[in-house]
Amino acid sequence: MKKIFVIGLGPGSFEQMTQRAINAIENSDIITGYDYYIELIKDKIKGKEIFSTPMKQEIDRCKKALEYALQGKTVAMVSSGDSGVYGMAGIIYQVCSEYPEIEIEVIPGITACCSGAALLGAPLTHDFAVISLSDLLTPWEKIEKRLLLASEADFVICIYNPSSKKRADYLKRACEIMLNFKSKDTPCGYIRNIGRSGEEYNIVTLYELKEIKVDMFTTVIIGNSQTKIINGKLVTPRGYRNL
Amino acid sequence: MKKIFVIGLGPGSFEQMTQRAINAIENSDIITGYDYYIELIKDKIKGKEIFSTPMKQEIDRCKKALEYALQGKTVAMVSSGDSGVYGMAGIIYQVCSEYPEIEIEVIPGITACCSGAALLGAPLTHDFAVISLSDLLTPWEKIEKRLLLASEADFVICIYNPSSKKRADYLKRACEIMLNFKSKDTPCGYIRNIGRSGEEYNIVTLYELKEIKVDMFTTVIIGNSQTKIINGKLVTPRGYRNL
């Protein structure tokens, strides 16, 4: 069988993986992923072949996975969170587009907006939008437009990739856009290192969020007009009528 | 300890739960949830007390959970998907607002947009918005506004609760709104009974989606301007430049 599993491991601790993800890893011949995730599953992959490529070389990694799959090996590509949300699943379909004989199975995991929301309280009880601030492959104008319209629509907004060395002020710029439609007192939260050592979260207002320094391991959630703080947690009610 | 776990079990099969969810269930004294989910975890809850309430009586269920927790019992409230996404987590924080001594721990699960996306291919590789069509607690005008602005922003849109007996034509109305900004050829997918018997999915155009009959167990994903079909799967590229 020519098969590639694209597996989301969830937020970074072994107990937050699903049994389905673990089974797929055990049923694969070859495993690929960043070292951190390989380490997390090392008890499950003894004796299996492992290959890795440096960060940002995702396409090379997919091509290598394809090569192995064409040889009849079952390949597991593992990543954190959900491999379908800003993950490898899309790229692997694109790389394998000329090879319909390759079976691709995407195994979902818990993505950062869900694991982050659970730490903050319950901010995603109502409609929300998920936006990445990375402009590596998307024009910044498109990102700005989405931030503006999502704010106008009163979505809870969850931000992935809020910052990097080259994009140190992007979260601040995003906050300024959201402030066109969201109140400066809107409750927000941010979470670092979800599910692993150094996990921390904080709740601030949208105005305060502007000045918060975040890194690429941070996920940010901005409330909607109904979001409030209850006993130190961020909670969006499930509707606009009273409980 | 006065503790309530609010646990998301994921898309409905035992192997899609996380070990963390299973551990929390095993560490609880009392379990509550709909029969279907209780059945799914029955091997893990032998000898534990179980209580349930009819559908739509979520607030009563939360109040009962609070009552047990105040007695010093550890309560597990289980539900499908992620308990934080249109789930019970928000309500439990609201119901317990006067009782800060109750510890609430939300344990995330895989929500339907992620499990549904994995079946369809990789439609959520880029920014997306999640919208419920239920107007039970939200004015329809607010839902319409979100559909319109999310379409204008070129989000992939994931729809929860697309229909019910009383809302048979809501998906059609939503499609008509999205067609203001999305092409009628936009690739879309819908998934029924994710992760359980009767699981099925289909890929159609946005124009065709208008006439599709869906039920409350269906999740719908509408592509963005970049979404395409590759080998029968729905794929959104991760950016706007070439691979």
User: Strand order, biggest sheet of chain A?
Assistant: 3-2-4-1-5
The pair of chains with the biggest contact is: A-B, 77 and 76 residues
Oligomer: homodimer
Question: What string, H for helix and E for strand, traces the elements of chain A in order?
Answer: EHEHEHEHEHEEHEHEEHEEE
In percent terms, what proportion of residues of chain A is strand?
15-25%
State the helicity of chain A in percent bands. Answer: 25-40%
Distance between the termini of chain A: 53 Å
**SS element count, helices of chain A:** 8
Shape of chain A: elongated
Kindly report the average pLDDT value of chain A: 93
Unreliable stretches of chain A: none
Let me know the number of strands of chain A: 13
